[in-house]
């Protein structure tokens, strides 16, 4: 299933725009695009919402017939337990996370201990935990950790754009993780020369115009055959003013949805 995530609304949620989009507003905008899945990922207000606010957000999602996934950073047992509770509130069956958070950087041994402690609760609840590929942890180490724990409810959130900062090739990341993928983050990416031709910047690109070989990912991971959701994100830099930035963000979202639908 194609879905949108909060990173597709990064600037629209931001206080740099005159009227930031609320979470429920993002739900409504997603449904208006004909998309039935939304991933609330790294959305800080979620963790400070009152019980009533969470109830209202979950009710809005149900009224719109949206499937909800959740995302956080960190694997401390108390954090994952909290998100498992949130998963229950939103009828969620997948939580995405990363090994590191702003507060903790566990060793692989500590990570394994924490994950083994909390996974029985995920298994009992029927909720998947998907750990994202990114530059702070070698893809081979992440794959080894997930394979070693060997839980049906533990897998990988595949985002091959992230690993370039570790000098890993996106195609290699896709091939290494394919068998363990439970979620895909979809965005294109590219290098551009900095002014003066001194070095490069690495950032987002409109889907289909960058370096991401998405057909290779589809062929290797087979997400549609395996029921793996594809969540649209962007790496869009500020475009100089709020109006232009929001317009560009919405255009990138529309183009990415069209691209994904054209490949089905």
TrEMBL record:
Keywords: Carbohydrate metabolism, Isomerase
Gene Ontology MF terms: isomerase activity
Residue ranges annotated for the Xylose isomerase-like TIM barrel domain, each copy included: 27-255
Keyword Isomerase: yes
UniProt xrefs under Pfam families: AP_endonuc_2
Entry-linked SUPFAM superfamilies: Xylose isomerase-like
Name this protein carries in UniProt: Xylose isomerase-like TIM barrel
Organism per entry: Microbacterium trichothecenolyticum
Lineage, opening ranks: Bacteria, Bacillati, Actinomycetota, Actinomycetes, Micrococcales
